[in-house]
Task: structure prediction
Amino acid sequence: MDFFKSGLKTVLGAPEPGHQPSGAEIVERLVDRVNNSTLLEDRRDACRALKAMSRTYRVEVGAQGMDTLKQVLELDRADNETINYALDTLNNVMSPTQFEEEENNPRVPMNIGEQFTEMFIKDHHNIQLVLDLLDEYDFRVRLSTVQLLTSLLTNRPKDIQEIILVKPMGVSKMMDLLGDTREVIRNETLLLLIKLTKGNANIQKIVAFENAFDRLFEIVSTEGYSDGGIIVEDCLLLMLNLLKNNSSNINFFKEGSYIQKMLPMFNTPEETEEAGWSPQKVSNVHCMLLIVRTLVSPSNSAQIITSCQKIMKNVGLLDALCNILMSSGVPADILTETINTVGETVRGEVTNQEFLGNVMAPSNPPRPAIVVLLMSMVNEKQPFSLRCAVLYCFQCYLYHNEMSQAGLVQTLLPSSTDMSCLTSGQLLCGGLFSSDVLSNWFSAVALMHGLIENPVQKEQLLRVLLATNIGSSPVSLLHQCTLLLQQTTKLKSKVALLMLLSQWMSHCPAAVAAFLRAPGGVGWLVAQTCANEHDDNEVLLQGLCALLLAICLHFNDDSVENYSKESLRQLLTKRIGLEVFSSKLSEVSRHELYNKAAKHPQLRAKLPADVLIDYEFCRLFKVLESVLIQSLSGPQQNGASSPAPERGSPDSGTLEQYKTLIRQQDARLQELMAQLEGLLQQNQSLQGALNDSLSANSLLKDENTLLKAQVSAAKSVPSGVQVPTPSQDDVRVEYEAKLQTLAAEVARLSSELKTSQEGQKSMGEELEKMRKDQDDLLELLADQDTKLNDYKLRLLSLGQAVDDDTPAPAQPPT
Amino acid sequence: MAYAYLFKYIIIGDTGVGKSCLLLQFTDKRFQPVHDLTIGVEFGARMITIDGKQIKLQIWDTAGQEAFRSITRSYYRGAAGALLVYDITRRDTFNHLTTWLEDARQHSNSNMVIMLIGNKSDLESRREVKKEEGEAFAREHGLVFMETSAKTAANVEEAFINTAKEIYEKIQEGVFDINNEANGIKIGPQHSTAGGAAGAGGAGAGGAAGGGCC
Ligand SMILES: Nc1nc2c(ncn2[C@@H]2O[C@H](COP(=O)(O)OP(=O)(O)OP(=O)(O)O)[C@@H](O)[C@H]2O)c(=O)[nH]1
Ligand SMILES: [Mg+2]
Result:
């Protein structure tokens, strides 16, 4: 402080004797000086002094100096030094980070930088002023401008992005800086662009249009690709921003032959293996892998995925990735991410899957890479994330590929000749029955993926026999699974086996029959379904058992005497009851991990505890759920009419009953629709009110900050003066009073806001409920419709005339 | 695929005149009957041959709606060609051409080739703008002119290819500085007299990895 004050004497003139000026006072005088001095030197000196004070007295400088500094940017453009001081001062005032100088100052609010940013950008012209300064070639000015923009973007990304987007050449100007030959500027510009492009597709496209990929690949290649420094990582992070969820840019990337340009990144020369990977190299390669995955992510459109996959194969990128997979000394993180990347690069693309299937590991004896990977998956000692990655990669390898599915099952069939070498199938069977729960789960799910939408392999897998004890006859794989299901005490294993069996037996009557013949299976499922525990996982288990039972019923070809379709149905209705049954079934999709799994094909588990449900299983469940319920309630509607109605008594009474029901439901539907409409309107007006009070609130906040700053400035004045002049006191009191009213107002508004938010929320919930009810009703309606038609047909076939406007399909009487 | 040159195009004009349809017809040979409003911009690409040379066209289809005008302005600089499109069945889209042209001239580099396109020529019965009017406007402002139909594909190829020819000629005449990428032109990775197009893939930058493609 003393240092400041002595330094400031020259700027401010000698202080009055006996008067120690406070910081706020000094700031005030400096601001005055910038405003009123006619000499450029004076203004420059004052700006320099303001900059020096802007860390310790951020609030004061910001509150009193903001407008003045903006003027400097406009009027003193000719003097780079002054401009530079002004920029740095603004940057300090709006900095997102807390300065050392203010750590112990309770008067500085945490988000002070953000608050000042908010004030600064209220006038969009200010951003234009800053953007204009990018044209200045001077090193200091350009650097400070870039840094200031970065601070602004850090504080209010969405707002600044929208402002810059509508400024003529706003984005283009920043892109030009990437070509600056001064490395410091180029590097700072990279950081700026990363912030600028985050989550804004329009800006991302402009940046790509401005040749960003060319520039970035030039930098990456001159910096030495993966061996380059952090600047390479920054380039890659920017690329990642440009591509993430931006199909237009992905298309551009693909069409611009940039996939080829990624190749050198993955060419790891053999010699460096021993030297190990530097942390920076790990980060660089990791980013590059993420870029590859962004291009072929399952969430992209199928067309983009396929064409990117083809290019990756053709230019040798897949090959390079597989090389990393098979080379030694690769850090575990990179290996894991490479496995995921290879998976997505082959997923659903037959040529690439075949390529992966033929990759051989340099082991002794040489083994297929797939087998080596699966060995890791069923090996307890491997890192968890690696094992998950292998499962995903293997799933991708099987995805939509009947050949690789057949290849897997083939390795388990008795005919498969070479028993000496280890195969995928053997590894999975081993894993299925191992004592390690995760191995059980991974193996069951992997095996299940070999069966998806593949009726042939479902039947083939039935032929698989396992030798158990020497002397006893071999048991089929399906029997063994059923046995294990009943014996194991571990939830994960049970769930995994139930998922496998569900996939296996759905659409496969032969598998259903085999299961029904296995001892104890049905009984166990019924008992589990009836269980009454309420723990989330237990409820899930009950649901899965219900699902498998329903599959046994629906895909039943009546070939097992004791468990024909009809007898199973009776068993279920008697022992469990229709309603209980369907409510148990519906519990499956309520489980937290089910919803997590349903989102993305890749299992995104951080911990073994997150592993429970598989994505493809969720898809199966979604398709089957309603079908199964229908088949369960089947022909026994209301328990009244038996499946074959007695001839001669197709009473038109029933028909009339249904018609009435439908009319009633129709009316109810209309009513609900009207209610929905009303609620929607109500919601809208609430939203409007909310927005109004929000903006009023923000206005008040600004005013409040400004006043606080002014009050603190005013407060500190008397401390320096012996006798406070009454006028100052008055002002202070007045300010404080005003502040209090404002604070009260803010509080009132916030509570108002809260109430209206709550109101809105409950409205939303109600709306959601109505929607659901409506859906249910619609479904019911459709159901009734079908039934009605059935009855009509039946009536017709019995020779009854149906007095209805809807023409029934013509059916020749037999 | 290797190319001798790469040209960047933009397509501009009022909303609903058929910009996206023109692009789709050119890149995918398809027609899209419903108006799928473009938000911001969309990218498309295709290879063509001029004078025995492979030329890659990179095309940015912009949104015609007023709200996106400032985004569109970011694309003028850096484009070598522009297709300025109006709808022959809607006179207002023709009347707005002056505004579009002013915008384009103000923000683009002076050598940008502009092709004026009267689209929807298949809707003769609903025509509001005579072909002669389009020709006159083009003559007056020094543009190339063509009527097209994105629906029947009439003249669509020609519109894109003639624009490229115009740019190509300017290059031959030395009007364009082809080393300045801000002009929307790039020289291909290996600037040879376009060999077998099927074989070579794009070579890696930096020259080190020249060969290993396809
Ligand atoms: N008959 C006919 N209809 C066309 C033709 N070209 C486009 N259309 C129709 O015109 C409508 C608008 O076409 P778009 O290509 O989406 O229009 P746009 O210019 O891209 O519009 P914005 O994206 O809003 O700027 C669509 O319904 C098209 O089917 C044409 O040549 N003939
Ligand atoms: Mg469009």
Observations:
- The longest strand of chain A covers residues 360-361.
- Residues B 19-20, 38, 61 surround magnesium ion (ligand 2) (CB under 6 Å).
